[in-house]
Design brief:
elongated; alpha+beta; 3 strands
């Protein structure tokens, strides 16, 4: 009985040691892709040509993210400006000198379930990874 218990515990730890780094790499890649997308959207949206990040730009972003294996409907975008104006309205672009901030979030999607094998509590299903960026608008009418 004691040997069976030792075998089960050893097998659980061995599985965790083998597969946990893979899930950590998936997390790191997802966060890096999200941060790259935030930087890209801010670079385009805060440029002198646009001054906003429209719903259409966000939809194009969702399509780019889906190519990396992310579910497009699960990506959330939160836009804000330092002046309190809307940053997603093409008819009222954010003027030069006003900051546009963008926060993108995506669920962890049970990436840490294997951590239960060694007694760690994974993030709740409602928790999300978040990336943030801010850029000053360069739009001049």
């Amino acid at each position: 009985m004691k040997q069976i218990l030792i075998f089960v515990l050893f097998a659980g730890v061995l599985c965790w040691l083998m597969f946990s780094p893979i899930y950590k790499h998936v997390l790191i890649v997802r966060q890096a892709v999200l941060q790259q997308e935030v930087d890209y959207l801010l670079e385009i949206g805060a440029s002198g040509t646009y001054g906003y990040i429209s719903e259409e730009m966000q939809e194009q972003s969702r399509q780019r993210m889906s190519r990396f294996g992310m579910r497009a409907v699960a990506i959330d975008y939160e836009l804000a400006t330092t002046s309190g104006l809307a940053a997603s309205n093409p008819s009222a672009p954010v003027l030069r000198g006003t900051g546009i901030s963008l926060t993108m979030s995506y669920p962890y999607e049970n990436l840490f379930e294997i951590d239960r094998l060694i007694g760690l509590t994974p993030p709740l299903p409602s928790e999300r990874m978040r990336v943030f960026g801010m850029k000053m608008s360069e739009y001049v009418p």
